[in-house]
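Quick question: what would this complex look like in 3D?
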Amino acid sequence: MTTAHAATTAPTDRAGAPGPTLRMEDVVLTYPDGEGRVTAVDHVSLEIDRGRSLAVTGPSGSGKSSMLAVAATLTRPDSGQVWLRTPASLVDLAMVDRARAAELRRTEIGIVFQQANLIDSLTAREQLEAMVWLGARPTGRTRRAARRRADELLDVVGLGGAAGRSVGALSGGQRQRVAVARALMGRPSLLLADEPTSALDSESGEAVMDLLLGTAREFDVALMLVTHDARNAARCDAQVKLVDGAAV
Ligand SMILES: Nc1ncnc2c1ncn2[C@@H]1O[C@H](COP(=O)(O)OP(=O)(O)OP(=O)(O)O)[C@@H](O)[C@H]1O
């Protein structure tokens, strides 16, 4: 079994102790396929430390998105452990129920997909603020805090001047930068990005990569990047290549 590392510290098993932010151990994921099952992830292990980045590469159908879906709590693996270490807890994502998974996706796990999936009628700022309303009934204080955080993050992604513009009026690259800002709203420990630049021209794609790698370092977030682009993969601290679901 090969373990891909974007980690510098030894794993330990206590919350609060040093160790990788994400540690996936011997993960297996299968899907129903006619009478039988297809193995999408085949005994894969990997680690990512806070502030570090890991690229998951491999040919089409090799299991990259499935691996990310497991780390995102969107799919539960058949077996294996998926340890997420946050400042407050150490949790096996393979074991959490749907409600806890949804809470973790709001607070500890930021996700960016190929398409930004924004609500066009909202402004960039509202798009980010909506992340907070999903978790709690807004009060005056949480409203002000959400607005402050949204504006800070829009500044970080270079869209401070566009906070009040409808996202439907933004370019593809700008929309993806809003999606990155939205993924950071909950102050996540883990940022997951699935082909975040493949719908963009090379210049916008590079800007989004700069942003993802820069924010991972700056905010001490562990970044998993699914990509088929060798240049993007080479910019990450480490890489794992999947072939037929297995790390090679
Ligand atoms: N919901 C599903 N039901 C059944 N099989 C699936 C499902 N999702 C993925 N698979 C299968 O699992 C395997 C891995 O798919 P996955 O999408 O993870 O690969 P990928 O490397 O991300 O591919 P791509 O680069 O084309 O997006 C493939 O054989 C795929 O057909």
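Answer marked as accepted. Residues 31, 38, 40, 58, 60-66, 228 surround adenosine-5'-triphosphate (CB under 6 Å).
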